[in-house]
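During the reporting period the student researcher (J.K.) took over the structure-prediction task from the postdoctoral fellow and processed the backlog of single-chain submissions. One of the processed entries is reproduced below for the supervisory committee.
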Amino acid sequence: MKTILVAEDRDASRELLNIVLTAAGYEVIQAADGEEALVCASERQADLVILDIHMPRLDGYGVIARLRANPAYATVPVIALTASAMAGDRDSVLAAGFSEYISKPVNMSLLRREIARLLENRP
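J.K. obtained the following structure tokens:
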């Protein structure tokens, strides 16, 4: 079973992601902010990470920078979730080291497809 780390500061959004991903057959680790996400990542290796960009204590950009600096997470797929859907946001997110960008409100079918695509060639 693949493990997904979900870092989202809104409780309702985090719980919805947990329900949808668990129902899809993934094990979910939840974090309420960027600092907690890094703690979770250090305690348990995730196969994929979903990061909200705008979180307290440490935003998604700060988390991705630290994850990519860690050899254990250098190639792990990381999906950015953001309410920002301005021109150029996707390019900024991908340039920061994210594997994919999905705008909020999250289309759960799209999210499940992207997760499957990103995980399909991973051991």
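The committee noted the following: The CA atoms of residues 21 and 28 lie 7 Å apart.
J.K. will present the remaining backlog at the next meeting.
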